[in-house]
Amino acid sequence: MPTNTTTANRTLEIVESTYVPTPCGKGMILRCLTQEIGGPDAGRLAKLDFTLEHADQRIQERGQRAFAALRRAVGVLDPEDSEELHWKEFRFPFSIEPRGAA
After folding, report:
1. Tell me: the pLDDT tens digits for 9-37?
2. What is the chain's mean pLDDT, rounded?
3. 52-84: b (≥16 Cβ within 10 Å) or e
4. Three-class HEC string of the chain
């Protein structure tokens, strides 16, 4: 079935972050609030979640790999606090679906 989904790379920066339990209670998530920089959507907010601890090892590994990619993208390889990631630009691919799709 064809889809109208497109992918666009956006420049973002993290403006806020919290470390919270997963909804299922089996792990911990680094929840990041980002804002888009430049372009027609400058200032638009988006959330990025990274599951850094989880009872299911596959979920945890996936989250840690994604978090490692973020750290490389912002140039902070070994942060002691998530605030060290704030206000640093990085590119992120978003999948965009037209409203009403799905």
Report:
1. 889 999 999 999 999 999 999 999 999 99
2. 89
3. bbbeeeebbeebeebbeebbeebeeeeeeebee
4. CCCCCEEEEEEEEEEEEEEEECCCCCEEEEEEEEEECCCCCCCCEEEEEEEEEECCHHHHHHHHHHHHHHHHHHCCCCCCCHHHHECCCEEEEEEECCCCCC
The answer to pTM > 0.85 is: no
8 within 8 A of 44, measured Cβ to Cβ: no
Does residue 28 contact residue 52 with C-beta atoms inside 8 Å? yes
| 12's tokens | 């973002």
Residue 75: how many CA atoms within 13 Å on its side-chain side? 5
